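Aim 2, interim progress. The first record below pairs a target sequence with its structure tokens.
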Amino acid sequence: MSNKTLTYLVFIVIVLGGGLFIGANNVPGEWYQSLAKPSFNPPNWVFAPVWSILYVIIGAVGARTWLSFRRTMAMRLWFAQLILNFAWSPLFFGLRDPSSALIVILGLLVAVIGFMAASWRQDRTASLLFTPYLAWVAFATALNTAIVMLN
């Protein structure tokens, strides 16, 4: 196995594994079911497959950036978005604090946009691969905002 392949594997395992671990330990439960939600709230079963696909993309983009642009603002923003991403579920579901989670997801949205902007010149492919992630985080931000406003 080449170092490049190993790097991709490590990044994807860490991101996907971390996301699945956090998700399994911060399940929505009865509290979430009791919240008023907007009409655009998707069914609960949608979240796990969407996040699983996104975590693979996030891991691959992280590996790609690490291999070629390790000491750049793009790499720092990639790490920042991962920390914010991993912090959201424990705040929202674990601590049952949608308002604090909203602050974190707004930071996540900024970090994703920042990564895309920072990587655009050096690696347009990495930047474009974050497009579905940006769309989902923007949607999740709208959903989080609506839940805060409705409750």
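The second target in this work package is listed in the same format:
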Amino acid sequence: MARPKPVTFDKLKTVAENRRARFDYAIEDKFEAGLMLQGTEVKALRAGEATISESYAEVKDGQVWLINANIPEYSHGNRENHEAKRPRKLLLNQREINKLMGAVERKGMTLVPMSVYFNRTGRAKVELALGKGRKSQDKREYIKDRDWKRDKARLMRDKG
């Protein structure tokens, strides 16, 4: 069986990364979504201030929303500054939204934001992944496999 080609996105500057997600979830499919932001949110992101470690995405009324992502207030913003943890709309094609909705409802999967970044055209994007939660036994196996791969690479490097 042919292996699927890994999905790569045009990441110019990564602002926030959810490194824990690869450990907590078995990632199956990735999507690139636009992020609907206010002006001060874009400025705060360009300054490199954001955390998505506790955030998730959900489908409501045919739209995808990023919940609990923290983009702190812009330091030079005035009274028009944004709220730090407000829900933000994610911009996806209708076909992608339907696919995500089906996977979440039928298969019990979770929408996990993997990273927030700017692409080459200067647009803020979110790498969104469909993941299935790992149990503690699966996490232990994941750690064991990761350590073995690291040791194997070290042995091959030393012998080669």
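The two ends are 31 Å apart (CA to CA). This observation will shape the mutagenesis plan for the next reporting period.
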